[in-house]
Amino acid sequence: MDQMGIHYNLWMVLLSFALAATAAYSALNLILQVFHSAGRVRRLWLLSSACVLGSGLWAMHFVGIMASYLPFKVSYHPGIAGFSLVISLCACYLSLWIATMSRLRTGRLLLSGLILGSGISMMHYMGMYSMKLQTGIHYETLTQGLSVAVACLASYTAVFLFHKFKDYTGFSRWKLYSAVFIGLAVTGMHYISLRASFWEVDNWTGAKPLLMEADVVLLTGVSLVTLFMLAVSCGAVFLDRHVLERMAYHDPLTELPNRHGLERYFKGEFFGGPSGAVLFVDLDRFKSINDTLGHDIGDMLLQEVAGRLRRVINAKGKVFRLGGDEFLIALPVCTMEAAREEAQHILREVKKAYSIEGNELYVTASVGISMTPLHGTDRSALMKAADTALYTSKDSGKNKFSVFDQEMNRHQLWRMSLEKDLRKALARSEFMVVYQPKWDSLMNVTVGLEALLRWRHPEHGIISPAEFIPIAEETGLIVPITYWMLHDVCSQNKLWHKASVANVAVSINMSARMFEGGSLYEVVEEALVRSGLEPHFLELEITESIAMNNMEETVAQLSKLRSLGVRVSLDDFGTGFSSLGNLDEIPVNTLKIDQVFIRKSKMHSKKAIISNIIAIASNLNMEVVAEGVETPEQIELLQSLGCRVMQGFYYGRPMPVSELGQWFIENTA
Hints:
This is Diguanylate cyclase. It is a single chain. The chain has about 675 residues and is an alpha/beta fold. The radius of gyration is 40 Å and the shape is elongated.
């Protein structure tokens, strides 16, 4: 090749193109990570891509100069040459930033291509300007414009191809085409520009102090930039494979694979054997450990559990942490019997004592099992089946394992249907309140009522509280439902007072959820003010578990309500986990003996428990109410032990307001 005395080394020309295309392909490999990341990580990938591409284009320019044998001496000004590198880097960064926006619109693609092409052109002319020559350079305007147009058009074509390969991290022919077009953009612009450049001999007075010989500048600069390009590429690959990949696919607390790791494992490794198993593992009552000992202890416990699960499974499968206290175990080759044995082994290992920061902790787990291909042939189906089986283990008493079956699936679908309808029930006025009397067996008079919630489903009729109350508790719907119930009960009780039908306190069961927000006092006060009911005609029933959970805060809220005049009773006493040493600290008016003891009151042991509960209540100046009274023998026993107030079917079933008025008339002493 020859032009006005300038000769070209064909191999060097091809090398310059190869350098530009290789740099472009490396940059495109890095830019793909931008589409799958966000925040600082996204900016890091974008900067790495721009550095590799910009430095590669800059290096190509000077390799292109080296491909030319100039018939005169050339020197370079390093500051201007360095500035041309800055132009290249900035143009590449801005172009790639626009091209990787969430929506690749035509206008943005045009702008991105224009910026990249213009940046290549500016870098070229600044690089030419950095040359100190014995000649002057004159440019043919039309051909120079053509070179800029070639740079912009090829750059736009390269950017336009982004959408063809942005979702593929491996080799893609479209990615290769895009890299080739970027190579054509810079080499085409460079050699067309040189072709249209005219060199005229000028009086050259020699190099100034800041100038260096051409070969030294080219070899040193290009070598350093090439090394920089390789270092950035290798560093980014290392970061992706060893740091970012671990961050993306592993849980930082337990170092187990996370949900993303689970998805990748199921795509590539799990399926293929004749039979495999998926085990969902969830710790029982883990929240109470976090609440009582703090999240730091809870995190250490999770690390211990993760270690035990890893040792149990060993090389037979893989353990994943899905979040919170949920783990998943994948056994790619496993029979049903082997899965049951593994579940038993897991339950035994998990419930062994833990010693953490001086605390001896005990925790159990519930396990749900699904099998492939019996319960599904894809990750989603197997996880859903195992999750359903896990809920069965939880509902049946915890510290158990269950294998999925279709009956569980029907139960889960029914539960999901109830939850969906429950969210609309309050707005559709489907709830109603029924009242069960509390009877003074000595005075033969009603001394109170317990308000009980019922759900009249438009399709399924009356839904048992045992079915919908747990769902309302889990979803938090119990809070607005209880708000409504408080207002309804207070208003109804006030109406009875005005009509002289009844003049007794009505009790309402409180959920633990009502104490979480710290606004129970305000809610109760609002219901009393709106209805005009005097506070001592309202009684709140709490269970022992509520009283003992975050006891200090619960006692503070109950004390505030007691000071308002509202009564408090401790429901299901004797079946919970409260300590008798703390009973006197809980601001309670009444102890309610659970019906479990009343039903089995013929047993000497149950009779002894009832007698002790009554004695405790008497000694603490508390009233006592017996629940579940159904026979005269039970009444006689309770009276002999000192209990006079009773509640049960013997005295009256839960009744709606329409029936209760007549019941009051018929049972007035």
